[in-house]
């Protein structure tokens, strides 16, 4: 063996270096093992907290909203599961091409999507698009873009669309009620979301459910009084009439006279609640409960009821309406022609304004006002519908003679279609005013006594004369049934007085008159073609809806031979 200049072998140096390196490796391994023991055994709580902070999350478990059904359990509003696309901006790669592909799938501009993510890098959650269709959700999933996820939510769907829109209203994108029944009963319908703890991987995908913290509680179902068959029938006929007469709008309400249940409530114009763009706000208004109008001649039965209740008048009491006009202070009350001498029944049948005014002026103002107030004019019906109008009924102590006279034939006060229907339901129910409800009732409500039964029956008999030959409402007749009702043709108020060319055509009535089951009110606002009298425009709509509804509800006929139809004269159209 050769030796170096200092007498050390040439192979000793590499051996020493190897030993040093091996020692260093051993020390490093020992240090790592010690660190591992420290972290895995002595300091496990810290690691678990750090791991959980990065991968353990609490997520919301969505709860669906309660279903709204009609009286027979048919669905009117249901919540369907949908997917929403969201992102954790910090995990989304800054890849313009990948974001452009995502933008195309979502149907949004790529720059706007990139800007939305970039501006929210400090957040952990941002929606990219809510409530996408299944195909879009599948395409987003197929992209596999880190930081972009799908979340299950619920969207409200209305099977009948615009037919029930005004009653049901709609929900917002978070499934909270915004209008109509959805708003009025929001707390009942809305579910309570649950919560669960999950483990996510580095891409944000849920890999394991850890624990259910709180179960989701779905909303409660709500059964309405509406009958979807009658609702559809009423909507179809009202829409056809509004189009036929080129009217500005209209409303139609059908009540069950025994229970006060709203079986149908429709309006024109309408809207589709399934669309996020629901059109003009005016089209979303439930005119049947929010819009008021002067009831015109449809209020005359209550004027006559006050007269009969006073004992000063009977159905056959004569009233001289000649010469077809009546001067009251500085105003003149007019009829369409001189009806001459009529009895009280004839005043109703011919719809004489002069006769109604004379009857009203023969009574104390308080008596007339009292009947109007008792049947619900000037007060909300208590239906619970958001935004329901109270109408206007001025205090009788502020009435002058002219106000008392014009109130007798429906001017100077205002009502809603639902209020007018409820008032007629009192006549149908022998003087008991029912409690109006949008919810289904299992038994008839007692109602408040507002008129003597004798008076209600007498007025009902007079209203049958209106639909009989020679009455103003002959076009409201329903074959096989006795019908009682009243027409109304109201000039609309405008600055400086009343219009000579803008009208509201009305018909309010009930059937079968022998024992009324249904009450309906038809309002056609500003008809501009095919006439404007209530007997010409509104009465035929009533007849078609009532005929169909009576058949659908299996109500037995009470006049098998049906009424005799005759030609409609000009005087019989008011």
Describe the overall structure.
This protein is 34% helix and 21% strand. With 574 residues, it is an alpha+beta fold. The strands form six sheets. Strands 2, 3, 4, 5 and 8 form a five-stranded mixed β-sheet that branches. The radius of gyration is 37 Å and the shape is elongated. The protein starts with 11 loop residues before the first helix and ends in a 22-residue tail after the last helix.
Task: Give a short synopsis of this structure.
This protein is α+β, with helices and mostly antiparallel strands and 574 residues long. The chain contains 18 helices and 19 strands. The C terminus is likely disordered.
Layout of helices and strands:
Blueprint: H1 12-42, H2 44-55, E1 56-61, E2 68-69, E3 75-87, H3 96-106, H4 110-118, E4 126-132, H5 134-143, E5 148-157, H6 165-168, H7 180-184, H8 186-189, E6 194-200, E7 206-214, E8 222-223, H9 228-244, E9 249-256, E10 262-268, H10 287-290, H11 300-310, E11 318-320, E12 325-328, E13 331-334, E14 341-343, H12 344-350, H13 353-361, H14 365-374, H15 401-407, H16 417-428, E15 432-433, E16 448-449, H17 453-467, E17 484-494, E18 497-511, E19 518-525, H18 534-552
Parallel strand pairs: 2-8
Antiparallel strand pairs: 1-6, 2-3, 3-4, 3-5, 6-7, 9-10, 9-19, 11-14, 12-13, 15-16, 17-18, 18-19
Helix pairs in contact: 3-4, 3-5, 9-18, 11-14, 11-17, 12-17, 13-15
């Amino acid at each position: 063996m050769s030796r170096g200049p200092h007498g050390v072998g040439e192979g000793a140096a590499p051996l020493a270096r190897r030993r040093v390196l091996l020692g260093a490796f051993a020390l490093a391994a020992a240090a790592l093992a010690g660190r591992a023991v420290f972290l895995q055994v002595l300091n496990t709580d810290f690691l678990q907290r750090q791991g959980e902070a990065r991968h353990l999350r609490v997520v919301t478990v969505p709860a669906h909203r309660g279903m709204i059904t009609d009286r027979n359990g048919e669905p009117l509003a249901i919540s369907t599961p949908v997917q929403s696309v969201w992102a954790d901006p910090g995990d989304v790669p800054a890849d313009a091409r990948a974001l452009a592909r995502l933008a195309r799938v979502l149907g949004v501009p790529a720059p706007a999507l990139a800007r939305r993510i970039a501006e929210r890098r400090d957040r952990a959650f941002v929606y990219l698009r809510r409530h996408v269709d299944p195909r879009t959700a599948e395409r987003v999933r197929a992209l596999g873009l880190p930081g972009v996820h799908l979340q299950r939510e619920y969207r409200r769907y209305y099977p009948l669309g615009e037919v029930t829109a005004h009653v049901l209203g709609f929900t917002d994108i978070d499934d909270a009620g915004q209008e109509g029944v959805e708003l009025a009963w929001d707390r009942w319908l809305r579910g309570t979301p649950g919560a669960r703890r999950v483990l996510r991987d580095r891409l944000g995908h849920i890999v394991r459910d850890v624990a259910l913290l709180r179960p989701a509680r779905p909303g409660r179902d709500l059964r309405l009084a509406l009958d979807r068959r009658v609702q559809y029938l009423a909507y179809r006929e009202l829409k056809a009439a509004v189009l036929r007469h080129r009217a500005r709008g209209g409303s139609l309400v059908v009540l069950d006279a025994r229970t006060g249940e709203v079986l149908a409530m429709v309006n024109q114009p309408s809207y589709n609640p399934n669309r996020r763009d629901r059109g003009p706000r005016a089209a979303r208004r439930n005119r049947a409960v929010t819009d008021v109008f002067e009831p015109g001649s449809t209020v005359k039965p209550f004027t006559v009821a006050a007269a009969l209740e006073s004992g000063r008048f009977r159905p056959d009491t004569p009233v001289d309406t000649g010469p077809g006009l009546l001067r009251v202070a500085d105003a003149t009350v007019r009829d369409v022609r001189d009806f001459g001498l009529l009895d009280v029944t004839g005043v109703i049948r011919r719809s004489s304004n002069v006769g109604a005014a004379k009857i009203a002026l023969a009574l104390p103002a308080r008596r007339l006002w009292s009947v109007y107030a008792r049947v619900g004019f000037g007060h909300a019906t208590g239906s619970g519908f958001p935004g329901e109008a109270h109408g206007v009924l001025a205090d009788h102590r502020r009435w002058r003679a002219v106000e008392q006279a014009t109130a007798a034939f429906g001017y100077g006060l205002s009502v809603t279609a639902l209020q007018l229907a409820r008032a007629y339901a009192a006549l149908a129910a022998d003087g008991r005013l029912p409690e109006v409800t949008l919810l289904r009732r299992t038994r008839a409500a007692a109602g408040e006594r507002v008129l003597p039964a004798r008076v209600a029956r007498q007025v009902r008999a007079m209203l049958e004369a209106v639909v009989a030959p020679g009455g103003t409402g002959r076009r409201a007749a329903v074959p096989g049934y006795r019908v009682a009702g009243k027409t109304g043709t109201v000039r609309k108020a405008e600055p400086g007085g009343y219009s000579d060319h803008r009208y509201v055509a009305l018909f309010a009535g009930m059937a079968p008159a022998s024992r009324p089951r249904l009450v309906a009110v038809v309002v056609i606002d500003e008809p501009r073609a095919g006439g404007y009298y209530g007997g010409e425009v509104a009465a035929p709509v009533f007849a078609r809806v009532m005929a169909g509804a009576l058949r659908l509800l299996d109500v037995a006929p009470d006049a098998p031979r049906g009424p005799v139809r005759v030609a409609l004269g000009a005087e019989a159209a008011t």
